[in-house]
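Why should sequence recovery work at all? Because a backbone constrains its sequence more than one might expect. Tight turns favour small or flexible residues, buried strands favour hydrophobic ones, and helices have their own preferences. The token representation captures these environments compactly. In the example below, the structure is given first.
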């Protein structure tokens, strides 16, 4: 059984005002070709398909086309992330074409998408092969999921809520609590199914910030009450072969410790492999050093965690790079000269270090670097102890402004600049007096 793990497409997103839809379409073309040539059984998309709850029409059309083409070669399982609207993404789950499974409802948590091996051109599927169980979890917002997942949850059985007529008290308001409840449902269902099909493979698809993962600047904050992380041990000990994670944009493996759940009747302490596939494109300059990829996972080589080599079972297939992200720093003359030559075609963050802000800075930078997205003037400053000055009502506002300019620019304002500041203050005072 072979799956293709991807996430965080963020269709409809821009990069500092640059429309990325054309590049996102190219990546989806890449995924379709990869699915076809690598004889993939299932493509799992771990959330944040769209960049916002109400996506633009072009993004909706692009997703529809991509799902149609992917389903020609493999099963497709899609879940919403924290950027998606579960209602809008999952509106067509009951009428979706065969082979496409949208899992956006909390009521489906713990019920897998049961997939037979995809036939594929090399005929790998055989009669009687064990099924692939994909437990696709939508993004679990604690405010909503803590109520829905409390019902029928073993950990909440002894916690009646007197104010609710004996109903179970909601789970704690944290990502850890709701994910743990979801995994208990997964584990209980998997134990029942493994009794009939011991060799069945199990994959969990989730969207969360798991402890140990490295974040970047472009993920949306999902903290609730100061708690945003899920311990990696939450996924261990249930007999799951692979956890396909979404949310963090850097591809990375998360170590899931061996956990024995004998007391829960599962009797499984085998290792579980968990990974973030990462986003297909860089969405911030903090991601410029990441090597974007898609995880191609051969579940048969994981050996259920018992002696298999997880690294050998996962191949990171490089994603196409539409344009590199880079940062260049130096004086304007240096950057306009040989130092800037390797970066003319890059998406750039340009930091100019001249002591005095050069005239027509932005226009000159864009003339050299047509794809510059950020231009900053950062003059060198001598190392000195920070001085905190109290500004009272007796200070001359012009002196305060002069000190501020010197602090920010690294040098005192010129006579012409002081004249502009003085005129601005006089106009403000005149307007105040006439009000």
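From this structural description, the recovered sequence reads:
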């Amino acid at each position: 059984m072979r799956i293709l793990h991807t996430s965080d497409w963020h269709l409809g997103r821009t990069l500092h005002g640059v429309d990325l839809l054309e590049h996102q379409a190219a990546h989806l073309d890449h995924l379709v070709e990869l699915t076809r040539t690598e004889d993939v059984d299932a493509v799992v998309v771990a959330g944040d398909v769209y960049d916002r709850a109400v996506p633009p029409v072009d993004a909706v059309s692009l997703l529809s086309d991509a799902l149609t083409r992917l389903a020609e070669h493999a099963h497709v399982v899609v879940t919403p992330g924290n950027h998606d609207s579960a209602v809008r993404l999952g509106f067509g789950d009951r009428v979706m074409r065969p082979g496409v499974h949208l899992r956006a409802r909390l009521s489906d948590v713990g019920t897998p998408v049961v997939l037979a091996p995809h036939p594929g051109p090399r005929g790998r599927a055989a009669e009687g092969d064990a099924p692939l169980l994909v437990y696709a979890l939508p993004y679990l917002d604690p405010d909503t999921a803590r109520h829905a997942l409390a019902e029928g949850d073993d950990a909440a059985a002894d916690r009646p809520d007197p104010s609710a007529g004996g109903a179970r008290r909601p789970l704690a308001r944290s990502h850890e609590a709701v994910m743990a409840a979801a995994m208990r449902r997964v584990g209980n269902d998997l134990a029942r199914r493994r009794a009939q099909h011991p060799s069945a493979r199990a994959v969990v698809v989730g969207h969360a910030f798991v402890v140990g993962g490295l974040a970047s600047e472009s993920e949306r904050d999902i903290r609730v009450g100061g708690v945003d992380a899920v311990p990696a041990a939450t996924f261990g000990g249930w007999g799951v072969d692979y956890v396909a994670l979404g949310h963090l944009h850097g591809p990375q493996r998360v170590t899931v410790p061996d956990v024995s759940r004998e007391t829960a009747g599962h009797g499984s302490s085998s290792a579980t492999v968990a990974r973030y596939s990462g986003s297909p494109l860089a969405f911030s300059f903090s991601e410029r050093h990441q090597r974007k990829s898609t995880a191609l996972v051969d579940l048969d080589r994981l050996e259920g965690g018992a002696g298999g080599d997880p690294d050998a079972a996962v191949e990171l297939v490089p994603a196409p790079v539409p344009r590199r992200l880079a940062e260049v720093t130096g004086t304007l003359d240096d950057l306009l000269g040989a130092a800037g030559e390797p970066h003319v075609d890059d998406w750039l963050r340009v930091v100019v270090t001249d002591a005095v802000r050069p005239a027509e800075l932005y226009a000159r930078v864009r003339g050299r670097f047509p794809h510059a997205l950020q231009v900053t003037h950062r003059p060198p400053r001598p190392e000195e102890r920070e001085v905190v000055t109290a500004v009272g009502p007796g200070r001359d506002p012009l002196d305060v402004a002069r000190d501020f300019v010197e602090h920010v620019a690294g040098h005192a304002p010129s006579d012409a600049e002081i004249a502009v500041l003085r005129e601005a203050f006089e106009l403000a005072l005149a307007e105040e007096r006439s009000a």
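A few observations help interpret the result. The chain has a mean pLDDT of 84.
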